[in-house]
Amino acid sequence: MYKMVLDSGIDPWRIIALKEYSFNRPIASGHEDYRKNQRVELNLVEAP
User: Fold this and answer.
1) Tens-binned pLDDT, residue by residue, of the chain (48 aa)
2) Which residue of 2, 30, 43, 48 has the fewest C-beta atoms within 10 A of its own C-beta?
3) 19 with 47: CB under 8 angstroms?
4) What is the 3-state secondary structure (H, E, C) of 17-31?
């Protein structure tokens, strides 16, 4: 997932927000909202 963020061209420092969000709201790959939450995380990282 972090590699996907890097490949998208987002500034590297913004990954900190993604990691903190992931740490505070862990997502199990088997969780039904996994894909939705992943999009929320990416949107957070991409925010100005």
Assistant:
1) 555 555 556 565 565 565 555 544 555 555 555 455 555 555 555 555
2) 48
3) no
4) HHHHHHHHCCCCCCC
The residue written with tokens 């740490």 in the block is: 23
The domain spans of the chain are 2-46
Provide the 8-state DSSP code for 48. Answer: -
Give the pair of three-digit tokens for residue 35.
């894909």
Closest alpha carbon to 17 in 27, 9, 25: 25
Count Cα atoms within 13 angstroms, Cβ side, for 39.
3
pTM over 0.70: no
